[in-house]
């Protein structure tokens, strides 16, 4: 299976620990068999009152084997778990890295709760692949062959019985477990994702659900999902228990068989009676060592399913040119330059040294499953140091332009050039590094105002932080003031100002991309903050999206967007002179300010 090939590759990177765990596991297994075989022999020998030194040798051997077994079992656990957890850590990081460029598209299709379940739960399920599927059979086979060889030295018939028992343990029991498991296959992971979805929706939408009187209904839904998850967990646990019980049944069946066969062979004179207990205990220990085989296929199936779900999450998007739906039954060729989700060789870096120029050439964008394009052949040239604004009605495609500029999405037509270089050739991280970005809905982390200002990890003095707060008129906030998750305890205007202060602190970025950064502020505060922004970005390129037209007189370029097309562009004076759409908007705004 292709997905498990990835896992196998990750395991190969841990080959040293894997080799050590197999060696330790083999030593522990074989020491266990010899330990119990020696114990059995010791018990039988005592009946014949052997010389003291025989007893001393045997008891010492038993003690040494006991210690060896415990130490090697510890080594096996240590190395196998170390390999597993390093592998899981690497898988989690690589899965997350592949998710990041797909994020805007992915969140449209998968709910955050489901993604959370996949990242946490499905990756966790993969630990079974190594711990219960990949290496235990190797140890069992090695211990089995050594034991059969040892037993055959005393009786070929007993050895044959062990082989028959092992065939039943390795094939019949797992086959039966797998039959029972078919019904619950994958349901546990799906149900876990369903609960995760319900919980996140309930938490995110708590206030709205309460206000609209739907909270009880959603809580009941959560209870139903949770009960279903518990039921699936029971079913899965029952399946595993059934496997273990069947295995124990086979183990005791074989033990009885060895006992009966040993007795018969002793009567017929082909086996000395003193060895019966030894063979019995050796066989019992051997089958105990083989216990992981019972549930191996079930764990394998689970790991495969988890790997498939994880691969689906990243492949669904990365194999499809963004903005185009995949026709059924037909694989679309990848657009090498445009696909943001696939791993690409590192591109050129966008320089943060100089103010950037932005050129949009016949730029188009079409969201997947939308019947009309959101952006249509937009051409625009913003020279270095230019202060430009994009205005236009809601839904006209302004934010989409920003997402394309930040390579969060890839255009479906035309080209974007930053500093003359096609954006497809630029490394996206260098764009994020070179730009000072304030998005419509900035994220705030639980912590303090200081933590949220120092998001980029750079060290700054309290004076610097306070100056930034003063610039956005937030000096009434102390740096140690608490910020709740998602900035729940801040007003919308405070959040916007905190985001702007955060951006102003990032010195040396020569490209400013601001998406409605002051939309929640009152006119007076907005004017002040706007002036501060213009001062901060005096020598830089600034592109701002805004609804209100306050302060746009100072812009070098104003672009009016409607239904994804540029309908007007020019300076404030030019647009007012044209008496077109912008002029109309300004008149309405002036009227509203006057009314207020
Ligand atoms: N993830 C998405 N999937 C599908 N359609 C989307 C998605 N995001 C936005 N759209 C649609 O694209 C169009 C443009 O959206 P965009 O956010 O760029 O507009 P906008 O001009 O920034 O609007 P606003 O001023 O309200 O922020 C809208 O019709 C919107 O419904």
Automatic annotation (TrEMBL):
What the entry lists under Pfam families is as follows: ABC_membrane, ABC_tran
Q: Which GO terms describe its biological process?
A: cell redox homeostasis; glutathione transmembrane transport
Q: Name one GO molecular function term.
A: ATPase-coupled lipid transmembrane transporter activity
- ABC transmembrane type-1 domain residues are 19-288
Q: How does it sit in the membrane?
A: Multi-pass membrane protein
PROSITE patterns according to UniProt: ABC_TM1F, ABC_TRANSPORTER_2
Segments spanning the bilayer are: 20-43, 52-71, 129-150, 156-179, 249-282
Protein species of origin: Paenibacillus montaniterrae
Region entry Disordered: which residue ranges? Answer: 312-349
Where does the record place the ABC transporter domain? Answer: 358-588
The protein's location, in the record's own words, is: Cell membrane
One Gene Ontology cellular component term attached to this UniProt record is:
plasma membrane
Give the CDD domains listed for this entry. ABC_6TM_CydC, ABCC_MRP_Like
The UniProt keyword set, sorted, is: ATP-binding, Membrane, Nucleotide-binding, Transmembrane, Transmembrane helix
Q: PANTHER family recorded for this chain? A: ATP-BINDING CASSETTE SUB-FAMILY B, TRANSPORT ATP-BINDING PROTEIN CYDC
- Protein's recorded name: Thiol reductant ABC exporter subunit CydC
Q: Which InterPro entries match?
A: AAA+_ATPase (IPR003593), ABC1_TM_dom (IPR011527), ABC1_TM_sf (IPR036640), ABC_CydC/D (IPR014223), ABC_transporter-like_ATP-bd (IPR003439), P-loop_NTPase (IPR027417), Type_1_exporter (IPR039421)
